[in-house]
Write the structure tokens for this entry.
Amino acid sequence: MTKSGKIRIIVSAVSILLFIFIIIPFILQPNSKRWKVNVIEKNWNISIPKEIDVLYYNQSGFSFFGDGNYYTVAKIESNLDLEDFKLVDDDLQLEIESWYKYSHLDISQEYMFSFTDNLYGQVQKKKDDKCILLYDLELKLLFVLQTFQ
């Protein structure tokens, strides 16, 4: 076998391995609804019930390092543990409105929440990253607003 034949075999094998171990999982995982929830749980160290249906997901664009803004709406069949949540007050409402203003996301009106007496929330921060979790107790909808910088 010639030297160029060996190089061709090595390049082909490396290409196939890259495709199998990097490209395919990268393509398949983000489309999984539960994968989005798993990422939220891991990033913010929270527990979300397994009986969940992601209804809407939007992000500010593709970033190799995951920087940007993310908006997720999920229906939760069982009640969410509200131990760390509080009723949305004026301070939290200002924080939410500020997130919307600077997120530059085009969010479908169908999946926007409204400030009601049934809306509970919490804010988590890690360095420059932020997550606002909102839960509508009546509709059993979880709204997750995230910013990564």
In short: The two ends are 51 Å apart (CA to CA).
